[in-house]
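Bit of a strange request maybe. I'm writing a small parser for structure token strings and I need a real example to test against, not something I typed by hand. Could someone generate the tokens for this chain?
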Amino acid sequence: MFCLCLIICTIILIILSILFFPTIKIGSIRLGSYWIIAMISAFIFLIFQQVSWNNILNSFTANTSVNPLKILVLFISMTILSIFLDEIGFFKFLALKATKWLKGSQIKLFFGLYALISFLTIFTSNDIIILTFTPFICYYTKNSRINPIPYLFLEFVAANTWSMVLIIGNPTNIYLASALGINFFTYFQHMILPTIVASIISLFILYMIFRKKLKSPMIEFHAEIDRPNTFLLIIGLLHLGITTILLAIASYINLEMWMITISFAISLILITIMYLIIKRKKLTLIKITLLRAPWSLIPFVISMFILVLALSEQGITKYIQQFLSQFTPIYAYGISGTIVANLINNIPMSVLYSNLIPMTDSFAAYASIIASNIAAFITPLGALAGIMWMRLLKTYEINFSFKSFILYGSVIGIPTVIGALSTIFLMR
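Reply from user aminoacidic:
Good idea to test on real output. This should exercise your parser:
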């Protein structure tokens, strides 16, 4: 009972921290409050012996794909490859090129941006795309004198839909797929169709919601397009492309995915350092790239992992598993996962569900993966991307309330998650 009460308190405090005090300022340093709360809670679990040190040590040193440290290395190193391309201006360059081709019509711009954001998300990360395109959309719509909300919500929905298609699109995909031993290619085979269905449903609803706003005229806006450094662009794209290919065949060449991503992240950093030294330039690019990596995920995921271990040791996960077993697994895990992700965020939800899903039921894992991605539509609490997105809107003085997010998100998210889950159900 103590374990359950402490977890409920932790969840409530994390939600309140995200809503009311997202950062804690210590001198000139700002820290995310959500992971500090999770870390304090994990220490309390240890102090009151709700989870054993041996269990934690065994989990963190286990030579398995579900080892949380390996998963963190995989995601952060993959994110560094994407951040590098963002820092040299590749994504901004593509966005400006696209808007130049799509000028004159808001409808063309709407569908064109959806296609571009979706494509880039597949090979990078939903978080990086959201962080890159949000400032661009705010800047472009302001100068074109059009309503930014349709494009901002389109960007958010596109990024969190197409992050499902590859195992590397979201840390939740990696965590849940690794827990069930699902490899890169098998994952893609099962998730491509639900992603397409989710995309069609969400894009149709998006268009129906915003179609009147898209009929208003837009001012033709010319922005200067800076071409990224050719050498750095080629190096960055080569590293990202080869990494993606090797991840696809990792299970066939007996290489662990985290080893591939960390090797290419280190290679990219070293080659870039040598290039900058030869060109007698400062190492600012490397510094910013590394600073932008999601380091706060490390204490957050490890702390939530400890909380889930405590639930397992105290026998609570067994009761949850028994309750879910009464229903059709795909809908039970998919619908409950969507709700839980919006209560505790999709990363802790994935850590929890990796312990709940029966090892023999990979379709329950795919349903949970769908939930962990599409949950981000419904409230900003559903994913870290949502939290970052809402903060960015405040920075750019875009008036978009928590209530408005839930209103739009529920209308889009509920049919989308049901459509994607039904696709998986029919694929069994």
